[in-house]
Amino acid sequence: MVLEVQPVRLVSLAPNITEILYALGAGTRVVGVTTYCNYPPEVTGTRRVGDFSNPSLERIVTLEPDLVFLTSHEQGPLLSKLEGLGLRAFVVYPQTIAELQGMIGEIGALIGCEDEAETLAAEIGGLWKGAAEERRPRVFLEITEDPLMTVGDDSFVGEMIRLAGGENIAHDLPRRYAVISPERVIAADPEVIIVAHPGASRETVGQRLGWGRIEAVRSGRVYDDIDPDLIMRAGPRVVQGVAALRACISEAR
Fold first, then answer.
1. Is residue 128 pLDDT above 90, yes or no?
2. Are 101 and 34 contained in the same domain?
3. How far apart, in whole angstroms, are the C-alpha atoms of residue 112 and residue 116?
4. Are residues 30 and 21 in contact, defined by beta-carbon separation less than 8 angstroms?
5. Of the residues 64, 93, 126, which one is the last residue of a structural domain?
């Protein structure tokens, strides 16, 4: 996308994009966000245009944005509607760390924050320098309990596990995010379990049928205190997310 004039009024329809815009120093230009956009704290008073899956086109139009950012996941159908209303929209959906870096560069170029984008992308790229070469403990990362779901190796979160020094027990999942059976988790005997959602806890995981035999449960390495947004959002806080995962995984070495 090439814009003749630098956009001043920005609308973000995804929490990770909102975080990126603020990280690039463009927070004061963000005039609309979704109800899920909760970081940084400065975004609290920004106009809400609806939730992530069903934003209000009427509210977006009322804000008279120069550029609307959205993600292709779930929001794909919105693109044609926005363009049909005469609005400029830009779609991003990074699935790897490298794609996140590229996305930050693209957003920076669109809004005139190239230098800030280069700095942020370089900081994220530095994650590879800290990648562990030691033994990789077996890790199970749970994103929902019912159904029980986890991440595959080719997902953004799967890459974070590798960067943090772990071996994903579900590395061969056919999809990036998929259901996994409790029996498979028990058989894989993870040394570390990360609960990346608010629906379960260290205590409830240990109470599941058969899970008391798992090494992570027996050794007290079930972690439920990492902010899920640090793990599940492909944004600037991925650096903190990898650091939090690394701190947990290193306990199993």
1. no
2. yes
3. 9
4. yes
5. 126
